[in-house]
Amino acid sequence: MAILPFLLLSVLSILQFVSSSPQVRVLSAEKRIDLTSPIVRVFLTLKVENTGASEASDILLAFPPTEAEHLAILKASTAEGKRKKKTYVPLSVGSVESADAPNGAQLHAVQLRSPLQSGETTTVEVLYVLTHCLEPFPAEISQSESQFVYYRDSATILSPYQIKEQTIYIKTSTNKVESFTKIDPTARSGSEIRYGPYHDRAPYSYSPVIVHFENNNPFVVVEELVREIEISHWGSIQIRDHYKLKHAGAQHKGVFSRLEYQFRQSFGASPSFKNLLARLPPRVHSVYYRDEIGNISSSHLRIDFQKSELEIEPRYPLFGGWKATFTIGYGLPLQDFLFESPDGQRYLNFSFGCPLLETTVDDLTVKVILPEGSRNPTAAVPFPVHQNLEMTYSYLDVVGRTTMVLRKTNVVPEHNIPFQVYYDFNPIFMLAEPLMLVSAVFLFFIACVAYIHMDLSIGKSS
Ligand SMILES: *[C@@H]1O[C@H](CO)[C@@H](O)[C@H](O)[C@H]1NC(C)=O
Ligand SMILES: *[C@@H]1O[C@H](CO)[C@@H](O)[C@H](O)[C@H]1NC(C)=O
């Protein structure tokens, strides 16, 4: 009985919502959920039809609050052109005020290229990435056990629109699926679970499902990454990446046996990891890898024309809940990343995000340290980030280096896209450091000359 007013309220709010937006119906929807890595990727294809009288300029997507808080990236596109010349055109997506959506659902609006006229249909492709959505269960495992995780979702797609036909496919990392909720029709073959097809579901239909499966991928989470990108107009860019890394999988319990570790390692079925792969730009030089104890010698660098791959090995293999702190540093040629814009400004064009493969970064700070004497820095980043300026001082600095600080939480590999930092620079400042060195040498020389010519003897001169 207590639930009744609540239900009534949510029905009312649905009605309100529907009446305030143009009539859109989803003809067919397909959702493919990729659970093969610790990062969850969802591909959604929606074929929508405008059944109202007025035109519709955007399509709304709904997320339950638990997903919304783990949403790292949301992109939409639409296919244009015929079969062979099909190209995908990106569409802009923005979050919208969703006070009237039931149960705290969060809405995002996909802006269509041209408004959808009454009776017209279009297809929208959506990709979104979720982090920290796989819950290890059991939460603690010993060294010899496999890691199993829970994934929670709905068998029907949460949507503010009525969906005529829909199917969900869930891909797990291995064939070992302990259990999954069945809502007919449901089928599993190997590592794929299918929910649906379901027909004519009302707006905001939600039927919770849970999938329990094996996922022995290394759950590498960088809790904090501070990247320092220091530009020197004398020909190089220095990068220093400070990592605080964690194995975010099931907690390790019991004692650690190296013998057993080596045995399981050779069979491949262990959620622990002992090495990490970082993808660095081509032409890197002076690579180092160290922690607070000192240089860690276990790293391998492979360089080719397109990229460099650095394989690093922390001092010990990492099990669930274990942490490692280290720094990777390297130099890059200036001309690969620093350019001049048509209006005479200089700009750095560099990749945002973390160079470690398949890694979530909870808190990323990118510091672009500009040369001394740089003015008016501005950053162009293709997604919202927090920006501020600070000063960095290093050897021989007089006024300090202007530093552009960019911060972003919940960063995934999809964020590894170029960003730019523009600034004004007067080349006269390039002379500042050599001039200081020259004048220091000159002063020293004068002092020597003065010393030689000074008569410091006490005795009477003849
Ligand atoms: C650190 O170790 C690497 C091997 O990975 C070696 O090439 C380098 O010379 C060492 N650096 C120092 C300062 O010891
Ligand atoms: C930045 O570099 C990427 C390739 O790494 C390139 O595609 C892009 O056009 C560059 N952006 C600017 C503004 O130069």
From TrEMBL:
Domain of life from the UniProt record: Eukaryota
Membrane topology classification: Single-pass type I membrane protein
Signal sequence, renumbered to the chain: 1-20
GO CC annotation terms, alphabetical: oligosaccharyltransferase complex
Location in the cell: Endoplasmic reticulum membrane
InterPro entries to which the protein is assigned, alphabetical: Ribophorin_I
Pathway connected to this protein: Protein modification; protein glycosylation
One protein family per Pfam: Ribophorin_I
Record key words, sorted: Endoplasmic reticulum, Membrane, Signal, Transmembrane, Transmembrane helix
Membrane-spanning residues: 428-452
Gene Ontology process terms (BP): protein N-linked glycosylation via asparagine
Function: Subunit of the oligosaccharyl transferase (OST) complex that catalyzes the initial transfer of a defined glycan (Glc(3)Man(9)GlcNAc(2) in eukaryotes) from the lipid carrier dolichol-pyrophosphate to an asparagine residue within an Asn-X-Ser/Thr consensus motif in nascent polypeptide chains, the first step in protein N-glycosylation. N-glycosylation occurs cotranslationally and the complex associates with the Sec61 complex at the channel-forming translocon complex that mediates protein translocation across the endoplasmic reticulum (ER). All subunits are required for a maximal enzyme activity.
Family the UniProt entry places it in: Belongs to the OST1 family.
Subunit relationships: Component of the oligosaccharyltransferase (OST) complex.
Protein name: Dolichyl-diphosphooligosaccharide--protein glycosyltransferase subunit 1
